[in-house]
Amino acid sequence: MTVVGIVLFFLFGGMAFWLLLFLLGFAVPYWVTLGLFEAIRPKRVLEDNDEE
After folding, report:
1. What are phi and psi of 44, to 5 degrees?
2. 29, 40, 42, 49 - which has most CB atoms within 10 Å?
3. How far is CA 30 from the centre of its chain?
4. What is the gyration radius of the CA atoms in the chain, in angstroms?
5. Which residues cross the membrane (predicted)?
6. CA 7, 13, 17, 19 torsion: positive or negative?
7. DSSP letter (8 states) at residue 26
């Protein structure tokens, strides 16, 4: 039974490691990049009101 516990420990630890690696390597930079593009994108609210 001890072997099962050790295997489960390493299995869950490995899954958590790969999830964190994915988040730090892809998801967080993607999220930050989208936020930066949204922040520097010119606002077109005033231009839309002038056209109408």
Report:
1. -115, 20
2. 29
3. 6
4. 23
5. 6-34
6. positive
7. I
